[in-house]
């Protein structure tokens, strides 16, 4: 297991910095540090696929870079569409209960033009509140 390894990528002329917060053969977690922060995501490889893939290999390096790119795109989308997202937030969570899975499904499904991974949704909600 390894963790707290810094990674950087160039994407759309932006320097993006992040950190691998957890890395093992079957699991990897990445957190973005710059230009956005407080967003993280992770992936898991089922045991039956591990003879073919491991996050401790080059596959893990590429996966970490792709997760960092995803987090950057998510942060950029939130920054560029904050008024719309906050309006959607008030419509879907009018009762103030952010824990409802049904409300979260409808909010993320109708607000973002891409999938927001379940493990990243609480980070997004914390950013918005």
Tell me about this structure:
By secondary structure, the protein is α+β, with helices and mostly antiparallel strands. The chain has two domains: 5-79; 81-128, no CATH class. The protein has four helices and four strands; from the N terminus they run E-E-E-E-H-H-H-H. It has helices spanning 58-80, 82-92, 101-111, 118-128; strands at 5-11, 14-23, 27-34, 40-44. The protein has a four-stranded antiparallel beta sheet with strand order 1-2-3-4. Strand 1 (5-11) and strand 2 (14-23) form a beta hairpin. The longest helix has 23 residues, at 58-80.
Please write out the topology.
Elements: E1 5-11, E2 14-23, E3 27-34, E4 40-44, H1 58-80, H2 82-92, H3 101-111, H4 118-128
Antiparallel strand pairs: 1-2, 2-3, 3-4
- Percent in strands: 15-25%
Distance between the termini: 34 Å
Structural class, judged by helices and strands?
alpha+beta
Count of helix runs: 4
Number of domains: 2
Query: What string gives the helices and strands in order?
Result: EEEEHHHH
Low-confidence stretches: none
